[in-house]
Amino acid sequence: MTTELQAVQEFNKVIRDRHSVRKYDPSWKISDEEIKELLGEAILAPSSSNLQPWRFIVITDQDLKEKLLPIAYNQQQVVDASAVIAVLGDVEAYRNAEKIYDQAVSAGLMPLEVRDTMVEKITNGYPNMGPEKLKEIALVDGGLISMQLMLAAKARGYDTVPMGGYNAEAFHELLQIPQRYTTVMLIALGKAAVEGRSSARLPLENVTYWNGFQD
Questions:
Q1: Which end of the chain is less crowded, N or C, counting CB atoms within 10 A of the terminal residue's CB?
Q2: How far is CA 83 from each of CA 90, 116, 190, rounded to the nearest angstrom?
Q3: Which CATH superfamily is domain 17-91+135-194 in?
């Protein structure tokens, strides 16, 4: 009982202490190994049919960050943060269904007949949804993993800011990203030079409805 309560208290602290930070200590470096650990925690996030459409580009090279700066409309955190993590969404993630569900069977997480049913449903259904729906799914799942990544970073004492302000077309061109992948957001990751500020939130009663929508 005590352990469970402590876990809740720690999580409450993380979600209340996490704020968007735009000023970073440029001398602070996060090791590749720790970034891998963060991403390993992030990929535990849920996704549609467990297709895990997220892909990451971790940008730590300073020269590359300088090239990214104008593409991100000269937001200084791009060059000062330890890393910029680009979250991408694979709009053809359904092509990985067999690989993912085979792993589930091998790990003893799913019987073979369930695997066969799911793979058939995915491979027949997803391609017929249309490009806009597939992109929508990738963006929703990309949003889930992005938030999980930012909370995981805060739990380790690091700071982040999600960035939607950038030229997506130029970003794709800079990194030669295939059109199969849509950009979800950029996330600056590092050690804050100036603490993020709290922001106002609408009262809960203004955004929550019970058993129906009331405008």
A1: C
A2: 22, 40, 7
A3: NADH Oxidase (3.40.109.10)
Query: Which of 36, 12, 5, 1 is closest to 155 using CA atoms?
Result: 12
- The yes-or-no verdict on residue 7 having pLDDT over 80 is no
Whether this prediction's pTM lies above 0.70 is answered by yes
- What's the pLDDT at 1? 40
Q: In this structure, how many other beta carbons lie within 10 angstroms of the beta carbon of residue 142?
A: 23
Question: What is the 3-state secondary structure of the chain?
Answer: CHHHHHHHHHHHHHHHHCCECCCECCCCCCCHHHHHHHHHHHCCCCCHHHCCCEEEEEECCHHHHHHHHHHCCCCCHHHHCCEEEEEEEECCHHHHHHHHHHHHHHCCCCCHHHHHHHHHHHHHHHHHCCHHHHHHHHHHHHHHHHHHHHHHHHHCCCEEEEECCCCHHHHHHHHCCCCCEEEEEEEEEECECCCCCCCCCCCHHHHCCCCCCCC
